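Researcher: Go.
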Amino acid sequence: MSGVKAQLAIKLFGPGLDVLAAKGQEIESLVKRIPGTRDVAMEKIAGEAQLTITPNREALARYGIPVGQVMALVSEAIGGVGAGQIIRGNERYDIYLRLDHRFIATPEAIRDLVIQAGNGAWVKLGDVAQVVIDSGPPQIRRDDVQRRIVIEANVEGRDMGGLVAELRQAIETQVTLPPGYTVVYGGQYQNQERAQGRLMIVVPLSLAMIFLLLYFAFHSVGQAALIMLNVPLAMIGGIFALLLSGQYLSVPGSIGFIALFGVAVLNGVVMVNAINQNILGGMPISHSITHGAFSRLRPVLMTAFIAALGLIPMLMSNGVGSEVQRPLATVVVGGLVSSTLLTLVILPVLYRMFSAGLIREWLVTHQTRT
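Model: Structure:
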């Protein structure tokens, strides 16, 4: 999307090519000094040899030669002029006529080309135009109709967000940009920033909808909140797994947290529902909690182990696509470990606290029926 293959694209926008080249080199040197960057390179913006022919309007006026006649000579002699086509079945080949290579091979040879003035005199091209070899840009690239230059870099051993924050501060303090010149950060960082912005909206909405569905299922705000405690319990394992593996939070890791929340909430639903059924069946509360926790030990462990074992190949991958698979699998596997262990211990302990009102309602209903 940014026009580069590197992870990070630092785009410098501005009107002047010389200023872009000079400031781009400053930024390139600065990026190389930032820890965690590698393969730093600035795209080529100068050094391309170009043949430049500049008409001398005063000399042309003396000879009565229009500028268009000079440009037509250069275009036809060097570029060629179409003279027809050769047709061979379905194939068509254009025919171009131009001067022989020995007459246009060097600037000196081009200067010796002759052009006829309005009075019939023959004049060398070098007498009415400047023919030189200049150094110019190989290509002028633009984004949003603005000239730009890109400094590419890959990130290694650091999180991209922290590196870009340090780089942005360094450029603002150490590189002085003239008015009209701006720096924009693109590449995978831009995609990551955009995705994280969307996740900041999607994840809270998803959690709110899950809480609402849990309330409709259990008719209790307390029990819905108790089950939602599995979300931070799962995040503990996912964060520690990223820390131990030396990885950083990325878009795949964020998606892994979303998948992890679903499994963690499912385990909480299984546990709380089993305890509720024991209480509704007339079992004492303490015994209902203990029996419900032990009776759902196997289903909770099976759910966690099946999900974790299915992600082991992704967790061990190191080939193409591992930069997406490993963070996702690391978050889910680590979160399942903490979520499963803490669900089996913490949820039964906190059940009575979060379900006090519902328990009283059930006891009153049971006594009324009795």
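Model: The CA atoms of residues 226 and 252 lie 28 Å apart.
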